[in-house]
Structure formats: structure tokens, C-alpha cells
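Milestone M4 deliverable, item 7.
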Amino acid sequence: DEVLRMGKGLKVPKFGNFTCVKNSTRDTVPGIKGFTFWCAPSFSRAFGIPSKKVGAALLVPCLEFNWAKLAYKAGVDKDTAQVTLSLLIRTIGQAIAGGQAVRLGFG
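Output delivered:
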């Protein structure tokens, strides 16, 4: 959430990228149009999720995920943060593969 509010993207390993969509140079007002997520190819393959190649021209660059920062903010050690997020990603993948709709809220 914090990274997106700064107008940057975040690359979550083995899951996907959360990022912002920039206005086209043809738009009269510069800035951010909205937010988007796309699955990492490994996540799509693992759970049988169809995916398309994403064009990056209007997407802001993504920062690499910072495990130490997640651990600090969650009040746990780095290993616990990695295991917890990995389990969450697997649970999301299994739900999607089972035909359930998944919605992630931020903030």
C-alpha cells in the first residue's frame, strides 16, 4: 500500500507485480491513471491461471520486495515473514485454481 501511494510498483516474488498505470503522453493531465496487478509466470503455471504478456510502456517500474521491512512492520523475524507470505500466496493460488474469486484489500 505504501509503495503504491508513492506512485511506484512492487514485485512480490513468485506471486506478481502490483503497480501503477501512468497516463499516456497524449493525455492532457500527467500522472497516474490507476493501479493494476499481474501474476508472475511461475504463479500462473503453478495454479493453472491463464495469463497474457503485459506491455510495460504505461506501467511504473517495480521495486523488489523487501523481506526485512515486512518482518519489521509485522513484528516478526524475516523467516516467519517469508513463510507466512508464501503460505498466503499458495492459499490464494489454490482458491483461484478452485474457481473462487479472490479480492485483496489494501490500507
